[in-house]
Specification:
The complex is a heterotrimer of chains A (about 350), B (about 200) and C (about 650).
Chain A (H helix, E strand, L loop, with lengths): L4 H16 L13 H35 L14 H37 L7 E8 L2 E6 L8 E4 L1 E5 L4 E7 L4 E3 L8 E3 L5 E5 L5 E6 L12 E7 L1 H12 L8 H12 L7 E2 L4 E2 L14 E2 L4 E2 L2 H10 L16 H13 L2
Parallel strand pairs in A: 1-5, 4-10
Antiparallel strand pairs in A: 1-2, 2-3, 5-8, 6-7, 9-10, 11-12, 13-14
Chain B lengths: L9 E3 L13 H29 L14 H12 L1 H13 L2 H25 L11 H33 L4 H34 L1
Chain C lengths: L11 H14 L5 H4 L5 H30 L9 H36 L8 H23 L24 H29 L12 H32 L13 H34 L7 H15 L14 H31 L6 H24 L1 H7 L3 H31 L5 H27 L16 H31 L29 E2 L6 H4 L6 E3 L7 E5 L6 E6 L6 H18 L4 H16 L3 H10 L5
Antiparallel strand pairs in C: 1-2, 3-4
Helix pairs in contact in C: 3-4, 3-5, 3-15, 4-5, 4-6, 4-7, 4-8, 5-6, 5-17, 6-7, 6-17, 7-8, 7-9, 8-9, 8-10, 8-11, 8-13, 9-10, 10-11, 11-13, 11-14, 13-14, 14-15, 17-18
Classes of the chains: A alpha+beta (about 350), B mainly alpha (about 200), C mainly alpha (about 650).
Chain lengths: ~350, ~200, ~650
């Protein structure tokens, strides 16, 4: 066991790792954007170096133990060590240390070079997105040169494929961390600071991200999605998000709007066009166009939305939204209204 | 023990001293350890003060600088007190009880005066600890030094009482010598603290 | 038996002398007497038992966490309870187990023995430090059991832990627990430095100090320079929360990043404070069970010193995601990689010792060898984290959780178990059962890897840390379940160890002075040692005291044996320097610890009690210091002043 054990186990680990981490949404080794790709290349370089070192050290240790082991239990004073043999071994240790220094230098250089490469992406006119962290959701602003062209949404970020995007991070309360591993490493959202994270998607897709700095009760349920789409689709989406939805024509939806405006909803949420302008919770102007609710916690379906509105505390205990016991036809109307907010 | 015929060789330490000073004294080493720890606390706190300063273009905010008078008076007294302090240290290492008693009374009085002046410094800092980060940093830094000042004042007073009212053995002189070293620590940390609190906002 | 060990046999005259020494040096028995002990082995054993109890408590909390995480969207623990549990688990393991066991317990028990003296320096301070530590730990758990446990993570970042986002006493309890444990560690650090520098056996020059003692001295210096930073950061947090200072309030000029800098300036050296004793243990065990002196004594010593120094320059690698300037970050990458050279040097020296020695695979050696497998994997994943770009992907994910458990358990817990099997015979006089030791080892080793290896993959698959649950839609469920299964094996292993411990107290093989044929001075005396440690105080002829001893190695004579007099020696060559009398048993340490506890705890509830309680502390310190008449007169009569 002692000679073979370590090697077998290591082969197992290696196999597991190669199989395991390489695909999937929200996986660092499944890069879909240039920044993540650069990091992934560096990862594989460093990983192969450290794997090689590990194998060599274990082989050395395993062999040393196996060949030198004895079953004699000795209480006598051991013989003096041969100084010539120790001298030879000093050279061995010297070589080992030298090799370590060289490998470290390789890893240092490649890290610094990669770090420099991912620091920013060259662009004259990047899509600029402000992401502001809240306990436990993401406020998203698309900056525009004209104020009335600013898009405000929550928990879902659309970006054009193949174009640089800069995410500017800030926080309204505690430290959060924006992390969409398919696209890039993470960046903290720190109150009082603004950071910039440059990303660029290489292909279309929907990439999940999650808050990566413990931020309180519902840190576990603070996810988001980055939707990378063709530049045309992206522009269309942006234009649509800027627009104000028409007032509801359907009488049930109209009643739903009245329910919204006469209940606590209006104290936290904005719906442009309805008169509700509070900014404590996510902007709901185009809620029906989003894939998920509650910061990527639930798919955006009528049933889930109903459960969330009635008692969000049972889904995300400790979150800032109080329960709303609504009569069933009020709830129905409200849901119908919200569904019109495409 | 070896066999009856061959007694073990011995290293006889019975004539080594029992009263020693400076780095030969274990009490001195304890004090040295304490100074390392507290000195590190001061250094880190001063670094904190300057770190906070890099975050604020306005320092102190509102441009209300601490008044110089009482802090500088305290500084002068402390620096001058090095003279009687050194004299006391020397006399204690010579075991001269009478001189030590006088020296301790003098140092106790000096320390009490320092504490009284320190009480006047706080209100003349022109800031409050709960107003802003600058006020918090300033009060905490000077408060930390005050804690040491008051502690050494009490140490000196108690040593004075001990040298008058308890049987005097060599160890007591060691204690006086080490307490003098602590007083040097008070002086040096005050020089640093004074410069940071009173002059950094003016010079930098 | 070596010449030094032969000092166990005694003549009639000797026996009455030993009886007298026993009378002078023993601590009182009985319930109330227990609170007055100042013997370093008594206090050391308390540290060990208490730290191990906290290890078990932290382990239970970990098991609860693993049960919650075994399935996605599990409802075993509410988010609030989970957050308290992971915070208290981390705080327990780091502040109440790792440092108190790896540093305080082992150093307090072993360093005075290894340098050949009768007690540790400042015995009453030593006792005081233990009580302060105990109260700090109890404070934390009293919070947990009253639903006031801290829930902000073991490093309690602001603003989350600040007054705006964590109301109530939770974070205050955490911050003050830090004050207790750091005070305790600082006191022991000073004692260890002085004991190792001034109280060594004559002949034990600096280059003959055992590697284990050097490791503890280096750690002591690290404690002295690192702990002030966390004392400050936790006290500043407490002040922000209780008296409205604004250190971390960015609206009034404060800065949350300041907290991170202060905390990690302590936090990174902290892990080396935990890990260097592990390397010191491994060096000791590998030497003994390879039947040769350690290869590369000087290189290992320099490597430990380099680790300590460089370890103070790495802290920003915990902050790579905060957006600090790139040039600065590169410096910390370089430093973080440089420390690998120091650790690598130690590893290579151990490998050579194994290669050129005769390896005996008893349980202590198994645990020491596990270091290679476990710690090195953790250290190598640490290399990945030194790289900023890679760290930006793995930071704050389960990859990091895997990494630090590999380095902490590989670098501290495995060596610790090795140390316990190695030194338990010295402490209790009997050997632990070897077969049970092997079961313990393999179950723990397999269970540990089963729990923590999958976490590397979970992190790469996107699972962040500190989450009380995770979506069913993510591919994390199976690996989490596997990780929870590993806990079963580790629990079984620890239970076997505990059973072995109790079994060996009555049925373990009698150890004798030196069951392993080891070389350091603690093996020159009986197992367990008498209250005065050594019948004859030894002198030393080489680095491996018992192996290098002359046939007639001189002993020390001339100390007064009707009082607790010890020999102080010079720093460089350990030549006899002076004699000093240590205090005997005293109730003052616990009284002072009670007063200190009242001061620390009351001030987190109200600032009004600050002055009354600190005066109470002052009074106990006054009683502590105030000279006693009879001993003073006796000493004055026999005084010899220095020239």
């Amino acid at each position: 066991m002692r000679r073979h054990g370590p090697f077998l186990t290591m082969a197992l680990y290696l196999g597991l790792l190669l199989l395991a981490g390489c695909h999937g949404n929200q996986a660092a080794l499944n890069s879909k954007g240039i920044q993540a790709a650069r990091i992934e290349r560096l990862w594989w370089l460093m990983f192969s170096i450290i794997l090689g070192v590990y194998v060599i050290v274990l082989a050395w240790a395993g062999t040393a133990v196996f060949r030198a082991r004895t079953h004699r239990s000795e209480n006598e004073i051991p013989p003096q060590v041969d100084p010539i043999a120790d001298q030879r071994m000093t050279r061995v240790v010297g070589v080992a240390i030298g090799a370590t220094v060289v490998l470290i230098f390789v890893m240092l250089t490649s890290s610094v070079v990669t770090g420099h490469a991912i620091a920013n992406l060259a662009s004259k006119n990047p899509v600029t997105i402000d992401v502001i962290g809240h306990q436990w959701w993401w406020e998203v602003h698309y900056e525009a040169t004209q104020a009335d062209q600013t898009v405000i949404t929550a928990n879902e970020i659309h970006i054009p494929v193949g174009q640089p995007v800069v995410i500017k991070t800030a926080s309204q309360d505690v430290i959060h961390s924006f992390w969409a591993p398919n696209l890039h490493g993470k960046r903290d959202l720190i109150p009082g600071y603004q950071n910039a994270l440059w990303i660029e998607a290489d292909e279309e897709g929907t990439f999940r991200g999650q808050c990566a700095e413990f931020c309180g009760h519902q840190h576990a349920h603070m996810g988001f999605f980055v939707v990378a789409e063709s530049p045309e689709k992206f522009q269309a989406w942006l234009a649509h998000q800027v627009s104000t939805p028409p007032p509801p024509s359907d009488p049930i939806a109209k009643h739903g709007e009245e329910v919204f405006l006469s209940h606590p909803c209006v104290m936290c949420h904005t719906i442009r066009g309805s008169g509700a302008g509070a900014k404590l919770g996510p902007d709901l102007t185009h809620i029906a166009s989003r894939m998920t609710i509650a910061a990527a916690t639930l798919p955006n379906t009528r049933g889930n939305l109903a459960g969330w509105i009635l008692d969000s505390q049972s889904i995300k205990p400790g979150n800032k939204m109080p329960p709303n016991p609504l009569k069933s036809d009020d709830l129905n109307a409200l849901l119908t209204y919200l569904e019109t907010l495409q | 023990m070896g066999t009856i015929n061959q007694p073990r060789p011995v290293l006889d330490v019975s004539r080594t001293p029992t009263v020693v000073f400076g780095h030969r004294s274990v009490i001195w080493w304890g004090q040295f350890g304490l100074m390392l720890i507290e000195g590190t606390m001061f250094a880190i706190f001063i670094a904190t003060y300057f770190f906070l300063r890099t975050r604020d273009t306005d320092w102190p905010p509102g441009f209300s600088l601490p008044a110089l008078k009482w802090g500088t008076i305290n500084l002068s007294i402390l620096i001058l007190s090095a003279i009687p302090n050194q004299w006391l240290k020397k006399k204690s290492e010579e075991g001269q009880l009478g001189a030590v008693r006088i020296g301790l009374i003098a140092m106790s009085l000096i320390a009490i005066v320092n504490c009284a002046i320190r009480a006047l410094e706080f209100p003349s800092l022109n800031c409050v600890w709960d107003g802003n980060a600058y006020g918090s940093a300033t009060w905490t830094l000077i408060g930390f030094h005050t804690f040491h000042l008051v502690t050494d004042m009490l140490d000196t007073v108690i040593l004075t009482l001990v040298m008058f009212f308890t049987p005097i053995e060599g160890r007591r002189f060691e204690d006086v010598s080490v307490n003098s070293v602590y007083w040097y620590f008070i002086i040096l940390t005050w020089i640093a603290t004074y410069l940071v609190i009173y002059w950094a906002p003016r010079w930098l | 038996m070596t010449p030094l060990e032969q000092s166990g046999t005694a003549t009639a005259v000797e026996t009455s002398r030993l009886e007298k020494l026993e009378r002078i040096w023993r601590d009182p028995s009985g319930f109330w007497g227990w609170f007055t002990h100042v013997n370093h082995r008594s206090i050391g054993k308390r540290y060990m038992v208490t730290a191990f109890a906290f290890f078990l408590a932290g382990g239970v909390l970990a098991a609860l966490m693993r049960i919650q995480l075994a399935r996605p969207e599990n409802h075993f623990l509410s988010p609030d309870l989970y957050n308290q549990i992971f915070t208290v688990h981390g705080s327990t393991m780091m502040f109440l187990f790792a440092v108190p066991m790896m540093f305080e317990a082992l150093a307090v028990y072993l360093v005075p023995l290894m340098v050949g003296n009768r007690n540790i320096c400042f015995p009453r301070l030593n006792a005081y430090s233990y009580y302060v530590y105990l109260v700090g730990g109890l404070l934390l758990y009293s919070g947990l059991f009253t639903n006031t446990g801290p829930d902000v993570g073991w490093f309690a970042y602001v603003p989350l832990s600040g007054p705006d986002f964590t109301p109530g006493k939770r974070a205050d309890i955490w911050a003050q627990m830090i004050t207790f444990t750091e005070l305790s560690a600082l006191a022991v650090a000073v004692e260890v430095v002085i004991t190792a520098f001034k109280m060594r056996a004559p002949g034990m020059s600096l280059n003959r100090i055992p590697i284990f003692v050097w490791g503890m001295v280096i750690v002591a210096f690290m404690v002295i320079f690192a702990m002030p930073a966390v004392m400050l950061s936790s006290t500043m947090l407490l002040m922000d929360r209780t008296v409205n200072t604004h250190f971390f309030n960015q609206a009034e000029g404060g800065d949350p990043i300041l907290y991170q800098h202060l905390f990690w300036f302590f936090g990174h050296p902290e892990v080396y404070i935990i890990f260097i004793p592990g390397t010191a243990i491994v060096s000791t065990i590998i030497s003994t069970f390879s039947r040769r002196r350690i290869f590369g004594y000087t290189a290992i010593l320099l490597a430990m010193v380099a680790t300590a120094f460089v370890g103070f320059g790495l802290w920003v690698h915990h902050m790579f995601a905060t957006g600090l300037p790139q040039m600065g970050q590169s410096f910390f990458t370089a430093a973080s990689l440089m420390v690998v050279i120091a650790t690598g040097t130690q590893v290579f020296c151990w490998l050579v010792t194994l290669w050129t020695g005769k390896v005996i695979l008893k349980p202590p050696m198994l645990f020491a060898l596990a270091f290679f497998f476990v710690f090195i994997m953790g250290g190598l994943t640490g290399v990945l984290m030194a790289s900023v770009p890679v760290d930006l992907q793995i930071h704050d994910t389960f990859f990091i959780v895997a990494h630090f458990h590999y380095v902490l358990i590989g670098g501290a817990v495995f060596p610790l178990f090795g140390a316990l099997y190695y030194w338990m015979p010295k402490i209790t006089g009997r050997l632990l059962n070897e077969a049970a030791g092997k079961w313990h080892f393999w179950l723990f080793f397999i269970g540990f890897n089963m729990t923590f290896f999958p976490m590397h993959i979970l992190g790469l698959r996107g699972m962040p840390r500190r989450v009380y649950t995770y979506p069913t839609s993510m591919p994390w469920g199976n690996l989490n379940f596997l990780a929870t299964l590993g806990v079963v094996l580790m629990t079984a292993a620890v239970l076997i160890f505990i059973a072995n411990f109790f079994w060996h107290l009555k049925r373990g093989e009698i150890a004798g002075n030196n069951p392993w044929g080891a070389s350091t001075l603690e093996w020159a005396t009986t197992s367990p040692p008498p209250v005065y440690n050594f019948a004859e105080l030894p002198t030393v002829n080489g680095r491996d005291a018992l192996w290098d001893a002359l046939p007639n190695q001189p002993i020390v004579e001339g100390l007064e044996e009707d009082c607790r007099q010890v020999l102080m020696t010079k720093v460089m060559d350990a030549d006899p320097d002076c004699r000093h009398e240590f205090p005997g048993p005293s109730p003052v340490p616990i009284l002072a610890a009670i007063a200190t506890s009242i001061f620390f705890i009351s001030t987190i509830f109200t600032a009004k009690l600050f002055f009354p309680t600190i005066i109470l502390v002052g009074i106990t310190l006054l009683i502590w210091y105030w000279p006693k008449r009879q001993p003073s007169l006796r000493r004055k009569e026999r005084e010899i002043w220095e020239q």
